[in-house]
Amino acid sequence: MKQINLKLPENLFEAAKDYIERYGFRNIQELATESIREKIFEKSEFDESFTKEEIELIDSLILKTLKNKEFVSEEELRKALK
């Protein structure tokens, strides 16, 4: 097993802590490991379809949603995106 040092912006760190509490991860290391595993080993139909700017916009939206705890159901989100 390899150990790494990871620096995060404060807002991403706080959002990660909220995510950990909400979804039952033990710590940031477990969340980071799972996130990397998903990115590398699970093929996503969306990974190659977004521009860098679109990905940054999506990341920003996710962080603001986590920070403000403004979640909606998947059904509501799909309706809003149509």
List the helices and strands and how they pair.
Layout: H1 10-23, H2 28-41, H3 52-68, H4 74-81
Helix pairs in contact: 1-3
Distance between the termini: 45 Å
Shape summary: globular
The count of strands amounts to: 0
Instruction: Report the biggest beta sheet as strand number plus sense, adding barrel if it closes.
Output: none
Regions with pLDDT < 50 over 5+ consecutive residues? none
What is shown here, in short?
By secondary structure, this protein is mostly helical.
Describe this structure in words.
This protein is mainly α and 82 residues long. The protein has helices at 10-23, 28-41, 52-68, 74-81. The protein has one domain (10-81). The protein is built from 4 helices and no strands. Helix 1 packs across helix 3 (52-68). The model has no long low-confidence stretch (mean pLDDT 83).
